[in-house]
Amino acid sequence: MQPTLVILAAGMASRYGSMKQTESFGPGGETIMDYSIYDAIRAGFQKVVFIIREDFADNFKAIFEPKLKGKIETAYVYQKLDAFTGDREIPAERTKPWGTGQAILCLKGTVNEPFAVINADDFYGADAFVKAYDFLLKKCNSKVFAVVAYRLVNTLSDNGSVSRGVLSTGSNNEMQGVTEHTKVFKEGDKIVFEEGDRKGELTSDTQVSMNFFCFGPNFIDLCESLFGSFLDANLQNPKAEFLMPYVADRFIKDGHGVIDVITTDAKWFGVTYKEDAPVVKASIEAQVNSGAYPPALWP
């Protein structure tokens, strides 16, 4: 069964301050998503599913459908605040959906095959897509998933702190867990994190997850089985998020299976802050000049 690429594009981009998912970064007006889709097609993917906000659907489709027509099959899923919440009464102060775990749950009924999932606003590099596609095609099943791991030093911003999921692995290179650090930044020649009053140091080679996972379709069912209890415990918390890495961690801890760690030396870059945009544009321009990408992805 051919694997599918899923792109998480429903975020509100609160720190960035605009809809960065559709901002132009390439010399031909390409978005970061364009480069991910281009790399995915080259790797072998034949279908992409976008998880977006319904109120943004017409604008989104007008941007992507003309250039992707005939190149890759497309489908759309809408993440809504009340999706899969049942008859629970959502507090008025809750305005955002419930996070990436709920986004994956919204794939139910649309994705029934192995799939890779990525963030819309992250540039992952061609190597990651080649390795993910190979894994999905040859190894992925209901008990074996994977996460693409990046070296921490290749994922930082010069313009502020970032959130990173630090992976712990066993001797067989399987993920044992993920520790979320919400404030990671450079301090001189060191990489440090802060959690409340606690401060620690991380090595440049620390393996981190950038939300590039490879799952079997049963992962969607696992999201569904955990979402209800999450809501019951967090319904009154306007900032609570049901996150995909949490579900992945439960997949391991509850004995459902294993998550292989796929390592890549690719340099990740993204636009957490507006000040990151010129750096991303320059990085893409350098890749184009090196011949890694054509000046116009979709001629």
UniProtKB/TrEMBL annotation:
Highest rank taxon of the organism: Bacteria
Record-linked SUPFAM superfamilies: Nucleotide-diphospho-sugar transferases (SSF53448)
Family annotation (InterPro entries): Nucleotide-diphossugar_trans
Name used for this protein in its record: Nucleotidyl transferase
Species whose genome carries this gene: Filimonas lacunae
